[in-house]
Amino acid sequence: MNRFFKIVLTSTRRASTNGSGKRKTPFEGDKVHIPDEPYNSKVRFFICFKKKLKHGIQIDESLLSEMPPIDAKLISHLERLSLVRFDSEQAVANLRNSIRMAKRLELVDVEDVEPMHTVWESQECPTFDDVEEEPLPIDKVFRNAAVRFDDFFVTPPGNVPLESNERFDLNVINKWDTIGKPVAPEAKTIRLAEGRRK
Amino acid sequence: MWRRRFATSAATTTVATVSRFKPVIGLEIHVQLNTRTKLFSRCPTSDASPNRRVAPFDMATPGTLPALNHQCVHRALKMSRLLKCHVPKWSRFDRKHYFYADMPAGYQITQNEYPIARDGLFGYWVFGEETDTPYWKEVEIVQLQLEQDSGKTINILDSSPSESSESRSLIDYNRAGCALIEIVTSPCFETAIEAIRFVQTLRLLIIHHNLSDGELHRGHLRVDANVSLTVDGKPGTRTEIKNMNSIRTIHTAINFEIARQFEILSNSSGKVIRETRGVDSEGRTVPMREKDAEDTDYRFMVEPNLPILKIRKEWMEGAERELETQGIADFEWLRDRCGFDPRSSIHIAEEPDLLAFVKRCVRFKDSGVTADEILYWMRELKTIMQRSKGNYPPKSDFFAKQFTTLIHHSGRLTRLRLLDLLRFYATSSESEEDVLLEDVMEFIDKNDFWRINDTEKIDKFVEESMAKNGKLAEKVRSGHAKSFNKMRNLMIETSEKRIELEDAEDAIRRFLQR
Predict the structure, then answer these.
(1) Is residue B168 part of a domain?
(2) Which of B36, B59, B305 lies at the smallest CB-CB distance from A141?
(3) Which residue of A31, B258, B298, B406 is most buried, as measured by CB atoms within 10 A?
């Protein structure tokens, strides 16, 4: 607790003094909201959602909904949504951990609170006249293009079906955090390949 | 081969539909607006070679922000009024995510939860083959939303089996970010005809009010159809037919899909899979390559870069004012003001040349000429022009005037004479000699082409013709049918087509009975 206020106070004080190496704000005297030093986020949790937490700064994991088991179907669903491929059990296990961490947000009381969609909530959408402006010159359009064919961008064909999803040892992924190892074991495929080599 | 198979399956559908199956069709129509610039950037939308109409925002350059085009909102408001939609006080934009190379941001900005308009009603006439009586149908409009178009993809497929396949896609972003209005109807159509008449009527209205250029073949109007069959009143699984861009395709594809589903369902163990289907060049629906057996998750989220769009009162008034000054569309004018039937009014309004001709005719129309008469004689004129290899319809004002005058006096001329005069005026005015031509009334008066109604006069023609052609007269007297016709034609010919066919026949019969 005390540490948190100390951090906030020091950061505000630092911002208001002018000197080299000091934090600067666009307007002098503005508050700096990002602290200079990291602090334990659990402290913040405690301050904001005191009511929901039972034992002080510790988050009661039993209040959270259960982790869904990660299966081949879920992995392929996530890969399709993100267009990112998991390259190992470790990657999936990391994601699983992140999901577990994010689940803490379930404890936030959002009853009768409209979600915030934009920082321009009180504004109206501005509209613009239908007046043409010069489009980008062709060389600028292609400045970042890796491959160009005549005046077209070139991409790999779309709608490529994803490969089989039975690539990972699901047991390892789902148990990793209870095994207690900092890094998940290597992917099954690699192990198998190495085993064969041996 | 396919046609025959298709025809039989379609026929069985209609029979069986009565007993167990009923098609249910809903449409999604994407209308490309003809604004000068795109929906969220001021990049011009005019035609150009690939990737010449691209602003940084259109290719999702990081750091660029959407700037909403006011004209698009204006046109959407006009469209909402045309479709009698409810326009809420505000609407909002959403992101719909999917990965396609022609959608560079990885999402499309559209309106999902709070569209610009909803709950509309649109009435139109449905007519089928020539014999059907048209009926009025009202379609519920679920919602109307503004959204971005995607770019265009050219797929280059390499069929060689080698692993280093050369398959790739070429992308043109000229269309990316252009403004679309998507019109979503409730699943209230029961036949393909109902669906296509709706699209046809809507298209004419859209063009009239300058919302879109409405050229189907150029993709200004793209239609998706959701088709399912209810079995004994229970809703069935639907399939979605994507991206149809001609009226004929919509018609055949929907019918094909109904027939296909019917064939599956009439087999007791058959099951229709929920899927997206494309259309091949023959109008058959084929499964699309993409697999979306499980429902695609678009991860809709509110577009954070666009605040809420509040619809101001003066915007609404402006849209209404403009609709009023624009007046009714041509097909409505033909139908409601000139008395053309629903089928012809749509048909004429769809063909600019025909429309111009009919407009000219209506301008010169004497009070006695009805729409049906104009239509009847237009059909005759079409045959004449086809035979004489002239252009139909003739373009000159002069001809239109003579045409309506002739129709007005059609009761006083024989049919053959009228056709002759039409041919003469149509072919001569086509060759730009009309300056030399006199008015048809003067022409008729001068040559005395008026129909002979006096039976005594006609009888005289019979007597003369019979006397002149002794041999033929013998045959006619003996009851030879061919000779009878020959004699009749001879008579008409000598009278310079002033005797009506029936009159001539009656007169010969009278003569024979004497």
Answers:
(1) no
(2) B59
(3) B258
